[in-house]
Write a structure and sequence with these properties.
It comes from Dyadobacter psychrotolerans. Keywords: Membrane, Transmembrane, Transmembrane helix. This is T9SS type A sorting domain-containing protein. The chain is about 0% helix and about 45% strand. The protein is mostly beta strands. β1 and β2 form a beta hairpin.
């Protein structure tokens, strides 16, 4: 042990006497008299084995300076006393490793800095007896005490922890000295866990009651803003009661973001007595890592589990026994087979293990499984504190989004969000961003059940590897599929079921079901709309009454597939995309649509042929309805010698017919510019059932318009000549074609001819056809490129009078350009 002497100038100095150091005082000095009295008192009343050193602080605030102490720097055998600041020039500060047998703060102040360490061990009474103030920013460990690890002796006692505080981690608490108390912390003052961590263990020992061995015994003010772990150090019971809170002054406050974890208690997890108050706005976990022998919570006073983020999880088979006031506006998770009770609930209670949970009053929810979105922290799906159990959903979790918890509405921004099922209650909201992917593989009668609002801009996968039970999506609310992709498979009733809600498809919707599923798309009421930017892919049956084609594409799935409508269906404002791979069996060799009612035609029939060499007379029925109304406005992808026949071979059927014998043999078709007009001339050598010719001209936006009709000559083998004068040609390039119409409603299109109506400053484009680079001259800005269906496929800026179209599939395209302050349209062929 180090010792010091006090010089004539009242400064402590070291002296050596046979390896011992003593005090040397100037007799009768006024300064020394105070310390002589203190030391005499300590020596008079101290036990024979008592070794102590008193903080003087005469030199500095450094704990490690010998002259600041009455008996040198404390070692592991020293009981340390720190007196009030009025008796010291400086208060002690620990900046590195320090040790003591015990520490008594007698109105003084002790600070442990970041990097500072104080180890207290071996006290026959309290590890730290605090009647003053302690601030820990470093590491404080307390072990092997006769009584409490820390005694906050008076109402003026203050302890602020911003570092690491461990009690009983390597030695028992309250085991010697015959004391009846042995808590980790016995608080009669003010204790604040500001930003650090506290670990309390080994307060349980033979001969002590569970009350005397509580990890925390609080009869004043205790505030936790960070983390406290109790009893989780070993696999055996090692504390009595986890938290013992006693009124009338006992107030324990677990703030938002704070965590209190209690395990391995031989008594109750939490016991709240005699008008004590416990308020939880953070997270409390009881029995998650070890057993609790008593109640999970025993409350005869006031327990408030309130706030969005308030989370109380009793993971062990222990109940809440409350005869006092227990109010819940947060979340309670109860795993007990016994019967719990609280007073008032406006929050959420999950009773997971079959016991009864009694709530006297309150409108809050009681559920038995699943994860519930609370959105306390942010809108991020992947943030644990946004969920009732403070964990992000896994593939085995049924997820519920309820209207009551919408501080933040959930947004999926990650590529690996998963769930067993997702239920959005009325008023609830779920958003999947363009970066988000949600995968649901095993549903609970459904993949997603929506009674609120769901908006998808990302990727939603449902049942791609396993069954989703009845429905992939069950919609009773508002479901907006704005962009991205939805993939549904393995539903055994319907991939999409719309009860009374509104489902709007503006993107790609891929639907599959089990073979035995009665419907692909089913609806009880409400509206399912396939909008102008939407594509529905699938095979199966669609309930027609509530399905609307609003300009979108219907593409039969399963390459090829069968799609059936159970009633009248209107195709006049849609594109029907069909795949033809052979002439054999519908659904195997080619797509087919069946309509159990009137099929109103119009819109576009888009054909994709992958057919080997056809045979004269081949007939492929692609649509089979009870009755047809109208014809398709346009047909794309129809190869040479194929025609679209209506009511062929039977009434209500639309078929593709191959014939080498054309209804009209067209010798020539030309367009010639006159002064103000454009003259079209054509000649036939034979006609069969020719009703006439529709004359069509293409708009700059890529759409064709009908500008006239010339009657045909029925059936004839004579040469017939026709002329038509376009008196209102478009400025710039004009494109013309003939639509030859038979009496049976079938039609064929001629080749396209074009003529330029302006001679000066013409736009030049070459080469045409092209395989990659187009040169464009005399164009003032960028260009837009449309396909033959009038759909915008590219919007590019001209660089050095060039554009790159190599990424486009082979076919005919139209470029809309600005020249001479006018928009003009020019066609080109991509090879």
């Amino acid at each position: 042990m180090d010792h010091s002497t006090l010089s004539a100038d009242h400064q402590l100095k070291e002296t050596n006497f046979i390896k011992k150091k003593r005090f040397r005082f100037k007799p009768f000095s006024r300064f020394n008299k105070v310390y002589l009295l203190v030391i005499s008192y300590m020596l008079l009343f101290a036990p024979a084995s008592f070794a102590f050193t008193i903080w003087f602080g005469g030199v500095s605030n450094d704990w490690h300076t010998p002259r600041n102490w009455s008996n040198g720097i404390p070692d592991i055998d020293d009981d340390v006393r720190i007196n009030p600041l009025a008796q010291n020039r400086y208060s002690p500060v620990i900046t590195s490793e320090a040790v003591a047998k015990s520490v008594v703060i007698n109105g003084g102040f002790l600070k442990i800095t970041i990097g500072g360490e104080l180890a207290v061990s071996g006290s026959v009474s309290w590890g730290i007896d605090n009647s003053g103030s302690i601030e820990n920013n470093g590491t404080l460990s307390i072990n092997n005490t006769g009584r409490d690890g820390i005694l906050m002796r008076t109402t003026e006692s203050l302890f602020t922890n911003k570092g690491t505080l461990s009690i009983g981690n390597t030695g028992n608490i309250g085991t010697t000295g015959g004391g009846t108390t042995g808590s980790g912390i016995a608080n009669f003052g003010s204790f604040v866990n500001e930003s650090g961590s506290i670990s309390i263990n080994r307060t349980l020992s033979s001969g002590k009651s569970i009350f005397a061995s509580a990890a925390i015994s609080n009869e004043a003010s205790f505030i936790n803003k960070a983390r406290i772990n109790i009893g989780g150090f070993s696999d055996e019971l090692n504390v009595g009661i986890g938290l013992l809170n006693i009124g009338p002054s006992g107030t324990f406050f677990n703030q938002v973001g704070a965590i209190l974890s209690i395990d391995q208690a031989s008594g109750d997890g939490i016991a709240n007595y005699t008008i004590g108050i416990i308020t939880n706005q953070g997270a409390i976990s009881i029995g998650a890592e070890g057993s609790i022998s008593g109640y999970g919570i025993l409350n005869s006073a006031t327990f408030e589990n309130n706030g969005c983020a308030a989370y109380l999880n009793i993971a062990s088979d222990n109940i809440i026994n409350s005869t006092g006031t227990f109010n819940n506006s947060g979340t309670i998770i109860e795993n007990s087979t016994g019967n719990s009770n609280i007073y008032y609930n406006t929050g959420m209670v999950q009773n997971l293990n079959g016991g009864n949970f009694n709530i006297r009053i309150g409108p809050g929810a009681i559920t038995t499984n699943g994860l519930i979105w609370k959105g306390c922290t942010s809108a991020d799906w992947n943030t644990p504190s946004n969920w009732n159990v403070h964990t992000v959903p896994t593939a085995s979790d049924d997820v519920t989004i309820v209207y009551r918890y919408l501080d933040y509405k959930p947004v999926i921004n990650i590529a690996n969000a998963v769930a067993k099922s997702v239920s959005v209650e009325s008023g609830g909201v779920l958003n999947i961003s363009d970066a988000g992917i949600l995968t649901i593989n095993v549903g609970n009668g459904f993949g997603i059940s929506n009674a609120g609002t769901v908006t998808n801009n990302g990727i939603l996968n449902i049942g791609l590897t396993t069954g989703t039970s009845w429905y992939g999506i069950k919609n009773e609310g508002t479901f907006n599929h704005n962009s991205g992709t939805i993939n549904i498979d393995h539903a055994n009733q319907a991939a999409l079921y719309n009860g009374s809600g509104t489902f709007t498809n503006r993107a790609s919707l891929f639907l599959k079901t089990m073979e035995t599923a009665p419907y692909l798309v089913d609806s009880y009421s409400g509206t399912i709309s396939n909008s102008s930017t939407g594509t529905l892919h699938g095979s199966g049956k669609i309930r027609s009454a509530y399905f609307t084609n609003d300009g979108g594409i219907i593409s039969l799935g399963n390459s090829p597939g069968l799609l059936a409508f159970d009633g009248n269906e209107d195709f006049s404002n849609s594109t029907l995309s069909m795949e033809i791979n052979g002439t054999g069996v519908a659904g195997t060799d080619y797509d087919q649509v069946a309509v159990n009612g009137i099929a109103t035609l119009g819109g576009t029939l888009a054909l994709t042929f992958n057919l080997p060499i056809p045979i004269d007379g081949d007939v492929i029925t692609i649509l089979d309805a009870t009755k047809l109304s109208g014809t398709f406005n346009s047909v794309t992808g129809l190869p040479e010698n194929w025609t679209v026949k209506y009511n062929t071979p039977n009434a209500g059927e639309v078929s593709l017919v191959y014939s080498n014998v054309l209804p009209v043999t067209l010798v020539y078709f030309t367009a010639k510019k006159l002064a103000e007009d454009v003259k079209l001339d054509w000649q036939t050598t034979s006609e069969t059932s020719n009703q006439g010719f529709g004359i069509e001209r293409k708009h700059d936006d890529g759409k064709w318009e009908n500008i006239g009709f010339m009657d045909g000559h029925g059936t004839t083998t004579e040469n017939r000549t026709y002329s038509f004068l376009d008196k209102n040609p478009l400025s710039g390039m004009n494109y013309y074609r003939l639509r030859q119409l038979d009496f049976d409603g079938s039609a064929e299109l001629s080749r396209i001819v074009n003529v330029e109506t302006e001679s000066a400053n013409l736009v030049k484009m070459y080469p045409n056809p092209t395989s990659g680079i187009l040169h464009i001259e005399r164009v003032e800005s960028g260009v837009k490129i449309f396909d033959i269906l009038g759909r915008l496929v590219m919007n590019v800026t001209i660089v050095n009078q060039k554009i790159d179209v190599s990424s486009l599939p082979a076919g005919l395209y139209f470029i809309a350009v600005i020249s001479e302050n006018r928009e003009k349209s020019i066609s080109f062929v991509k090879q």
